[in-house]
């Protein structure tokens, strides 16, 4: 599983992008030729385990060429708590002195260099100190000395102790890519308003506390879902495509310096249960980052093995595996090229005592007191709109989770998966409580496809899951001791700006005249999605639109698009707005919204989808510690708030759980 | 000033748009042929004064044609508090029976009808009951009976009493069109982050409580700034272009049923001081809606007269005029076609005891104990970016507030105006306190123009004004007794999605290749706006970018665009993205971003600008009652929260202030 760390590697500019021009970076977080990782300005929970890596860079060519490309192998590093004496890293952490590693990587300094194929090559000398922790709150300074006089320093802050649990359970709903704008649009579609007053609202609307969290990566201002999930779960920002680690410059995606996640700490300290539920494939970034430690989110097989067995190439905190784990992504479970070492992970999970469910009926029948795996399809779960309104789209899929050539059948939705997970986690966590992450994954995936209806359908599904979860917690008598947090990992630049008269648009031949069907301001009118349509009843219950295909549909847009055709209104088929032409460039798909008007894009011409955006995203909180979630803060603070509420900040090494071999030692709350 | 209410009028479809198709509405808020205004589902503060209008419609033609176009003039109406007996409106409110009014209006049922020029004509019979109030909290039912058996009912709710002041002063900052997305982008431009942690932040970021408010109009889901401001100031949503009134169907824009605003109530009940500050012309919707009552926001002259002298065509609450009133818009003050009855409103204000300032020097020197008018230019105040970074753009303007042909000189910014207003209002309000609204108006105006840099510059200016205001309140010793609320009236669908390498884009000739300069995700890199540029120092201080024109600029977009060319980065000249061609249609302006790539629009082809969006907008609160601003609520609730904090909900008619003639009776706090 571990590649040779010293291998010469030509890394992609996309994954390692530069100091000099800030946008293309030699290595994000490394301000000079010496790198301290974790870098300057990082926070830690007391007792949170992590790895440290030092790198000394010697660029052979390019604008930073130095020392003929020979890195200083005699670098030294110290750490000092404010007001105390500096000690060597090995002494301070009582860690043996690690072996020196060396490697080479390359990067492009800007787009001109990339176009000219003139990479800058960097030789590296490095050491890694594995599995250390800081126990005393306060400020620390780490100093790396190299090249006979150069220094790179990093200020680290250990946050206050938090040894008492205020919430027994935490349920964290993540609407992937979900913004306030989308929440507003979903409310408009599903809830009726009369003269400006909503007669019913979203479950989220009843949450008493709102905050805003900043989603930027450690080294770029637009994040992906791996490192943003990792920030939420560990209190440490990372780089695009990375989770549970800070990115180093080596080629091995599994040797980067790790940080302990909330479920690892929760299991280590309290022996609590934990679970993840997602409408994506379960190895996708948001669910897998709870347990995953990798520079590359695409290491799907490795990451599923980590979820079950923990990190295996280094000593690291073990959990006993998730107690409830429901989603798509059979590719990593069926034996074959998608699974780790080609093994059958249904069998691997079963060997460790899991019930394994491959459809909704089995899921609902699975025993609550047994660890539960549920994988319901290959790839992502079909979206709510296709499962409920356009089920004919499911029939042609080849996504049987058992490996057959037909479609997955008898699919659960996010609501059923989440409620079942609560039952299992409550039964298994008992007094020790639990942590559950539940993700509405395709809000993001469908926004990427500019398929607003499918995205908003999945947002409404998550809201419905939140409502059902609150009801289930009440039924179990644990609502008052459960903190519920609803947030997102990043945004897409989406908003609704009016309506479109589908009849008028369809009657126009001139593409420009089709745009005259759009009504803004006074002509935006009222939502018709909440008005019943004669002869149509979806049976989807309250809290969903009565009519997905009214005459007057919302007109909406993203701030960032590939070339595409636009014809507002729900599509019976999922969208594929742009596709790659013969010249390798992305153009509007001929088959997508063929009756629409052409919109040329604002994205690089190799992009076939929309992209993530900068915006702060909302955080909704209800339950114990809710008052700590008001105001504006960083995404890492969501971790520190949840961790403080769960009593995870300890001034000494606490290992009540310690893995399956010592379950009897689980702490009592 | 009052047009004949019974005049036959052909109203625009845009201002009165229909029940049958929901988007085009005969009259918003009127669900059947009988209309109760205020309509169903409206809330009132106890003691808040308002007008009632009933209308009975008889469509002569179209899909709703009824009774040969003869409206029932014998309609009757009653009101009943829940559990009590219904009384006639005249009896209940001890109001004389008003005279019957009749008129005719027309509307289009949909776009096909509009294109075919086939309006539906409606005859109307109506009565209006002026200046009534409900004093007892609870639910009321108003019933209109007409056409011998038809009824239209409206449920009204009077909110709880709130007779005690918890905050002496309220300062309400409105970032016009400002969303969370824009706040995030402004932070990125002005504040430096190191490895994901901001070293400084926005003033807004320090506010402890955040809420989200829904901005939709009473009859459309996209609002304009008039009726959204009105909702914030009065607790009553209205229709696009209306403020301080519910929209009726008559032609007269000044006879629509009114509602009392927060400053009218504050002056009537407590005799407090009030003021408005804006970077727009002061007769623009957001500042003028504090005192304005009109179906049409474009009645600028009338509205300025109302601000000074109150409503003059009906008996209505008088204030003593604003104590501080600073902004642009000399057109309504210079004698001529822009002012009410052609009068000199500088002189009218001076006659009532105002100091009149036409530049910053005069503003700063104006006595704090005297009512103060400051009008610094014609039209809107030039934006922060032009005042501070591109001052050459000011030199060619013809906006002298004294009426000369040259440019306005010695301009204050929002910070100077706001801080001066606080000084004046504190000196004049004294123990009675004050209410100040301060608006960053051109956030909206520049988003309309797709000029992201100018919009974000004005957002940062408002944030700077907030910071300076807090410092001034501290200095005056009144921070703890002042509630500060920062919010917006609506959004624009804006977000940042990456960066653009201006050098690479400029070096490409192919428009598609220019898009390859855009970096997303890992290639978005870090903000260069916070890095000093050699030889450039704007002198704009902390909290603003050090470099507005870096090589790597933000790539951003709006979800709704006219045709335009895009070339990311600050423009030395203000943007004009689209203009009307010879065929009357909007096309990308040839002179705007000529080096950019063409983006065809997603808006009707008569639109030259971006438009407002649906999104909920954030509310930041600090000070007394801050805890009441958490969670999700309607824009009208912002009024009820502020009003409750100011003790404006009284169970009897309270008139301590009562206008300038009885100043000695002002209540003591």
From TrEMBL, chains A, B:
Stored SUPFAM superfamilies: Alkaline phosphatase-like
GO molecular function, one term: alkaline phosphatase activity
Chain positions recorded as Mg(2+) binding sites: 176, 284, 286, 439
Active site: 225
The EC number(s) this enzyme carries: 3.1.3.1
Database matches in InterPro entries: Alkaline_phosphatase, Alkaline_phosphatase_core_sf
N-terminal signal peptide: 1-21
CDD domains: ALP
Entry cofactors: Zn(2+); Mg(2+)
Coiled coil: none
A Pfam family assignment: Alk_phosphatase
Cofactor binding, per record: Binds 2 Zn(2+) ions. Binds 1 Mg(2+) ion.
SMART domains: alkPPc
Alphabetized UniProt keyword annotations: Magnesium, Metal-binding, Signal, Zinc
Residues holding Zn(2+): 176, 444, 448, 489-490, 612
Family the UniProt entry places it in: Belongs to the alkaline phosphatase family.
Name of protein: alkaline phosphatase
Source species: Parathielavia hyrcaniae
